[in-house]
Amino acid sequence: MNWRFWRTTPPARPPVVYIHEAVLEPTLCALQQFRDEHSAHEGVVYWAGKAHNDEWIATTCIVPEAITTCGSFRTTAASNARVVALLAAADLVLLAQVHSHPGSAVDHSAGDDRDALMPYENFLSVVVPHYGNTTLWPIQHCGIHRFEKGEFHRLTNQEIEIQFRLVPARLVERPK
Question: Does the domain at residues 33-167 carry the CATH identifier 3.40.140.10?
Answer without folding.
Answer: yes
